[in-house]
């Protein structure tokens, strides 16, 4: 914020210059059409009103933004240095104790390791998405159908996805039946075994989100001018060469972006494990832990400190991303 | 086929090998596509099978055995009546409609101010919207909950509507992007005719924004329909579609045929929306998520 304020001054300068131009034209016409006698009285009031007009248009959106995003975010910092339980009228200042606990309590910080499963899974996800985006960018029969099928899981309600996979992973369920066909008679407890549960959940997350990566990659590939492929084909380049020489450089940027989003996303995994296991059997993630701390254990102060730590990590990742890919805007929601 | 024969005799069969190679490549491509299709659709199909089976049939048959009667909708009836899915659909529709109308008005008005006015503090407002996209939504609920509680909105639909309206930055970006394509000369012409700023927004800009509004309605509509944690946290006594389905976990714990029916019921509207609006959805995602 402190950086933005002085920076806005030069940008406002042309604004000040250009602002009178349009209203002036309008005022001029009004004067021509109506009473010029009103002009002397109206100038001061009208210019105040003119300054106010954009803010009247902005009031609703900015009001909600401040109330539901910045006010809670500011409070998060405040709660994080207290021992508040969420109900008590008094909040005792405890300094950085909560932060110390976040970093030293093994039950809290070790949860970050769970993110690693999802991080690895997001590489698998990007590889699958990239493969299908690449082959569907060449002429393919039923390409719309395949595109639709690959993308559709991304649109499905998270709770529905959770139930679909709870059913799939059931002991003696669909997955075990398929494995039985190929001779694996003694499958593990997909969601009951702490050694396996995170792989199962990360796999679910791959099924759910590959479609988004795929559509984004496909969009980027299709925006590459078609003449490039034709020229490459004339020069005798095969598909594989075309991929490395044309497609890959053309979408390097969105791959980089997806990579950064994968880091932020795997740190804040929430829905899939919360819906499917509720964080049981060692599948709890940092976000689940934070929300449980706040709403089940009523340690709002500690939970706020955890939220601030996550916020800081996501912001750092984003700053790094901005440095690496300066032109892209990112949406981390 | 015949075209490849003459060169083979001339260049020692290399084109044939190439052709065979490209044929295996094509085969591999379609095999992988079909495989991906199966992996995607299989989990959904077996759930559909289960949803059409009776309780005893479900207990006796394997997941891949199709239902004996394809028109056995008893489980869907149970899901709707005992599972309160109807209430979930009604509540979701109300929240969805009000939030979308609110988002459209607040979003287009904000975009109009940011694109068509020059004023002090514009950069600051832009910065505030931009920075807000970086704050991960779920974790700040720790503090948002206290705010909603303090406003006396806990356990009301109003809390959800305000949250859905208040956290939308993507919509404003889409509107601004689209508004930049609407020539300012239109505004100026209206001004010459004596229109004030509100009239210009209401009569000229808003109607021209219709395609952008459609995109936002679709993308935001799907997001609200799928939202799980906000209704779970803020509206415990009523169900939206996500939370109604989530509560199947308790009472129908072992009745997988009913849970499957409920899940299918939740997926069907998404499927219909997707089939009808594919083009808009792809367009909205690629412009909303990355640009």
How would you characterize the largest beta sheet of chain B?
Answer: none
The profile of the biggest β sheet of chain A is: none
Mean pLDDT of chain B: 86
Helix/strand order of chain B, N-terminal first: HHHHHHHHHHHHHHH
> Class of the largest domain in chain B, according to the CATH hierarchy?
Mainly Alpha
Structural class of chain A: mainly alpha
Helix content of chain B: over 70%
CATH class of the largest domain in chain A: Mainly Alpha
Give me the CATH fold name of the largest domain in chain A.
Answer: MetI-like fold
CATH superfamily of the largest domain in chain B: MetI-like
Instruction: Tell me the Rg of chain B in angstroms.
Output: 27 Å
Radius of gyration of chain A: 28 Å
Report the end-to-end length of chain A measured between terminal Cα atoms: 21 Å
Shape of chain B: globular
Level of helix content of chain A? Answer: over 70%
CATH superfamily of the largest domain in chain A: MetI-like
Looking at the overall shape, the CATH architecture of the largest domain in chain B is: Orthogonal Bundle
Category by helix and strand content of chain B: mainly alpha
Name a few traits of the molecule.
heterodimer; A: 333 residues; mainly alpha; MetI-like fold; 2 domains; 15 helices; 73% helix; 0% strand; globular; disordered N terminus; disordered C terminus; B: 291 residues; 75% helix
List the helices and strands and how they pair.
The complex is a heterodimer of chains A (333) and B (291).
Chain A: H1 4-18, H2 21-33, H3 39-80, H4 97-104, H5 106-109, H6 112-137, H7 143-151, H8 158-169, H9 174-181, H10 197-222, H11 226-234, H12 239-267, H13 271-276, H14 286-295, H15 300-324
Helix pairs in contact in A: 3-15, 4-15, 6-10, 6-12, 10-12, 12-15, 14-15
Chain B: H1 5-10, H2 14-51, H3 55-60, H4 74-81, H5 85-116, H6 122-132, H7 137-150, H8 157-166, H9 170-179, H10 184-192, H11 197-208, H12 210-226, H13 229-234, H14 241-246, H15 256-289
Helix pairs in contact in B: 2-15, 4-15, 5-8, 5-9, 5-12, 9-12, 10-11, 12-15
């Amino acid at each position: 914020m402190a950086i933005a304020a002085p920076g806005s001054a030069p940008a406002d300068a042309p604004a000040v210059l250009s602002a009178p131009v349009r209203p002036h034209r309008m005022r001029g016409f009004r004067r021509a059409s109506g009473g010029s006698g009103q002009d002397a009285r109206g100038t001061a009031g009208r210019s105040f009103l003119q300054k106010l007009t954009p803010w009247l248009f902005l009031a609703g959106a900015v009001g909600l933004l401040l109330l539901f995003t910045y006010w809670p975010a500011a409070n998060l910092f405040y709660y994080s240095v207290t021992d508040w339980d969420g109900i008590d009228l008094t909040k005792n200042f405890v300094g950085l104790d909560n932060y110390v606990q976040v970093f030293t309590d093994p039950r809290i910080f070790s949860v970050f390791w769970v993110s690693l499963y999802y991080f690895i899974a997001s590489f698998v996800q990007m590889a699958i998405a990239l493969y299908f985006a690449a082959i569907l960018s060449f002429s393919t029969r039923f390409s719309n159908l395949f595109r639709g099928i690959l993308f559709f899981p991304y649109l499905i309600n998270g709770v529905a996805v959770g139930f679909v996979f709870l059913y799939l992973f059931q002991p003696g369920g669909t997955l075990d039946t398929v494995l039985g066909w190929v001779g694996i008679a003694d499958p593990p407890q997909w969601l009951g075994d702490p050694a396996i549960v995170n792989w199962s959940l990360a796999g679910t997350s791959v099924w759910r989100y590959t479609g988004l990566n795929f559509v984004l990659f496909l969009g980027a590939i299709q925006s590459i001018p078609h003449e490039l492929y034709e020229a490459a084909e004339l020069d005798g380049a095969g598909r594989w060469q075309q991929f490395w020489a044309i497609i890959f450089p053309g979408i390097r940027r969105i791959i980089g972006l997806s990579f950064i989003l994968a880091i932020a996303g795997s740190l804040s995994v929430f829905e899939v494990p919360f819906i499917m296991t509720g964080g049981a059997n060692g599948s709890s993630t940092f976000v689940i832990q934070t929300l449980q701390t706040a709403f089940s254990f009523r340690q709002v102060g500690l939970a706020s400190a955890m939220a601030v730590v996550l916020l800081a990590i996501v912001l750092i990742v984003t700053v790094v991303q901005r440095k690496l890919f300066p032109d892209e805007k990112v949406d981390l929601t | 086929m015949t075209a490849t024969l003459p060169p083979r005799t001339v260049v020692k069969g290399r084109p044939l090998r190439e052709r065979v190679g490209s044929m295996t490549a094509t085969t591999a491509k379609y095999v992988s596509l079909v495989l991906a299709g199966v992996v995607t659709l299989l989990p959904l199909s077996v759930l559909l099978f289960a949803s059409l089976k009776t309780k005893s049939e479900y207990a006796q048959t394997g997941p891949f055995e199709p239902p004996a009667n394809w028109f056995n909708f008893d489980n869907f009836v149970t899901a709707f009546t005992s599972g309160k899915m109807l209430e979930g659909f009604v509540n979701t529709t109300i929240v969805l409609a009000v939030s979308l109308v609110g988002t459209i008005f607040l979003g287009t008005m904000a975009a109009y101010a940011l694109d068509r006015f020059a004023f002090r503090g514009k950069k600051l407002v832009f910065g505030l919207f931009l920075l807000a996209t970086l704050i991960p939504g779920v974790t700040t609920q720790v503090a948002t909950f206290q705010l909603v509680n303090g406003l006396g909105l806990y356990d009301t639909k109003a809390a959800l509507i305000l949250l859905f309206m208040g956290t939308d930055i993507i919509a404003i970006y889409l509107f601004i992007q689209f508004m930049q394509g609407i020539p300012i000369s239109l505004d100026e012409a209206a001004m010459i005719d004596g229109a004030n700023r509100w009239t210009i927004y209401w009569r000229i800009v808003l109607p021209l924004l219709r395609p952008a509004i459609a995109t936002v309605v679709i993308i935001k509509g799907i997001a609200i329909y799928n939202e799980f944690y906000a209704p779970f946290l803020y509206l415990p006594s009523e169900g939206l579609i996500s939370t109604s389905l989530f509560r199947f976990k308790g009472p129908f714990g072992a009745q997988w045929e009913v849970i499957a029916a409920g899940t299918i019921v939740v997926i069907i509207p998404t499927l219909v929306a997707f089939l009808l609006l594919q083009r808009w959805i792809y367009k909205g995602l690629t412009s909303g998520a990355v640009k």
